[in-house]
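Before a colleague's protein record goes any further, I have to sign it off. Alongside the sequence sits a line of tokens, each denoting a local backbone shape. I want your independent view on whether this chain really folds as the tokens say. Where you disagree with what is written, explain briefly why. This is what I was given:
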Amino acid sequence: MKKILALAVLASLSVPSLAVDQATAMDIAKKNGCLACHALDKKLVGPAWNEVGKKYAGDPAAAGQLVVKVKKGTKGTWGAIPMPPNATVKDADIKALVDFVLTLK
């Protein structure tokens, strides 16, 4: 039993965290202008991020799909107002924000 516990602890230490913490995510969002249209817990121009997290919870393809939607823009998913493309935002920033949003419920 002790060996299994030790292996479980070692395995958890070797797996990198996929999502950034909230403070880092908010810094990325501020830097890239995301907060002009989005908030964590209320709809602004775009949906609240916790609503996005709820909508895509449990969908293994969600992260990849959302990265593309953020990069290229989208319309019709959350209403009539389109999300413009974010072609100048670094891919790593988009991925970090998407991973963070998908932790919200």
Remarks:
- Residues 53 and 101 are 5 Å apart (CA to CA).
- Helices lie at 2-14, 22-31, 49-56, 62-72, 91-101.
